[in-house]
Amino acid sequence: MYDKLSRPQCSVLTQLRTGHIGLNAYLHRFKIAPTPLCPHCTTLESVPHLLLICPAYRHARLRLIIRVKTAHLSLRTLLSPKSDAAPVLAFMCDTGRLPRCEL
């Protein structure tokens, strides 16, 4: 599943799949983030919110739709072990949510 990916790429995918990633909903549980809400809207900032909903990442999501060749995005199709990881990793870079995007 992770054979052709770099260590940082594997880490990002694992974090997205488990929800243990530097988004406010997760960080707030440990009092690292002051609020669990998205800084761009008033919704819980979670993996589904980031990948599928947040209007701040609309342009990045449109590029993701082009890369995966379907407008019907779901967590299952994006994060399945059988899915191509490249579009999701590119989306994460496009959003700027990774401090140093070297994926």
Descriptive account of the structure:
- The protein is mostly helical and 103 residues long.
- It has one domain.
- It contains six helices and no strands.
- Helix 4 runs antiparallel to helix 6.
- It is globular and about 35 Å long.
- The protein starts with 6 loop residues before the first helix and ends in an 8-residue tail after the last helix.
Provide the fold topology:
Layout lengths: L6 H12 L5 H5 L18 H7 L4 H11 L6 H5 L6 H10 L8
Helix pairs in contact: 4-6
Protein name: Reverse transcriptase zinc-binding domain-containing protein
Measured by DSSP, the beta-strand proportion falls in: under 5%
What is the domain total for the residues? 1
> Which series of helices and strands comes N to C?
HHHHHH
State the secondary-structure class: mainly alpha
Secondary structure: helix percent: 40-55%
Rg over CA atoms? 13 Å
- The total strand number stands at 0
Q: Which geometry do the CA atoms define?
A: globular
Helix tally?
A: 6
Sheet of most strands? none
Distance between the termini: 17 Å
Protein name: Reverse transcriptase zinc-binding domain-containing protein
